[in-house]
Write a structure and sequence with these properties.
Distance between the termini: 50 Å
Shape: elongated
CATH class of the largest domain: Alpha Beta
Radius of gyration: 22 Å
Mean pLDDT: 89
CATH architecture of the largest domain: 2-Layer Sandwich
Length: 254
């Protein structure tokens, strides 16, 4: 997709770096994306290719001539979606279990992204077809999808700032006495690359949980994620010896 924008730097941006000024003038685009355009020579300042660390005085003309590659290589597929709400900016849907969110080597089609591209072909120009958070294949639940670059930027920023609260219900093995927090880094399993594990070299991962009900030697938990690592709930529950029931990978057999 070809993108063209022109503007004059407002006087109140005097003394700022070009990328800072443009981030204020173009709120639909992230600052990191603007920096990439400057580095690749796709932004002109007063008719010349802008320097990465250029400072503006106010009144300069800016021209953006960028080529945005289609963010998704997946093909549209007519897969039913359980849409709860939709407007011009977002889609709120209920992801069913046994559907993968993103295409990958082992799942090139039949994914949520394939379904979204069929539902709205314009999502091909939004990063990851608008998906800003993911659920595991076996997990069902509500997901929010961005339909525009502006909505994508807003959702990503709010997720990063933890202004969006994500909660999950799960039933685990064993009698969990009380709620708590698991603060343990998660990364690739050292021997099985298909799995995740609590490891000192992993990324920070924090999971909060509280007890809703006991069923003998099984416990219904409500889980809140502070971070969003792959398989985070499953890995953390297994780490505290209360694996998710029915989890064939991390050990929670019914």
């Amino acid at each position: 997709m070809h993108l063209e924008e022109t503007l004059l730097i407002p006087p109140e941006c005097a003394g700022q770096r070009l990328d800072q000024a443009l981030a204020k003038c173009w709120p639909d685009y992230s600052r990191s994306r603007i920096q990439e355009w400057i580095k690749s020579g796709e932004i002109l300042l007063d008719g010349a290719v802008a320097r990465p660390r250029a400072t503006v005085l106010g009144g300069e003309s800016v021209e953006l001539l960028a080529q945005i590659e289609e963010a998704v290589a997946a093909v549209p597929q007519d897969i039913p979606l359980d849409i709860i709400y939709e407007d011009d900016a977002i889609i709120v849907l209920n992801k069913s279990p046994d559907i993968v969110v993103h295409p990958a080597a082992g799942n090139p089609d039949g994914t949520l992204v394939n379904a979204l591209l069929f539902h709205d072909p314009s999502l091909v120009s939004v990063p990851r077809a608008g998906v800003v958070h993911r659920l595991d294949k076996q997990t069902s639940g509500v997901m929010v999808v961005a339909k525009t670059l502006a909505a994508h930027k807003t959702l990503v920023e709010n997720l990063a700032a933890r202004r969006i609260r994500r909660e999950y219900d799960t039933v685990v093995m064993g009698h969990v006495v009380a709620g708590g927090t698991v603060d343990a880094p998660i990364g690739r399993h050292p021997r099985d690359r298909q799995r995740q594990a609590v490891t000192a070299t992993g990324k920070r991962a924090v999971t909060h949980y509280r007890v809703l009900q006991h069923y003998g030697e099984q416990t219904w938990l409500r889980v809140q994620l502070e971070t969003g690592r792959t398989h985070q709930i499953r890995v953390h529950m297994a780490h505290i010896r209360h694996p998710v029931i029915g989890d064939p990978v991390y050990g929670g057999r019914p």
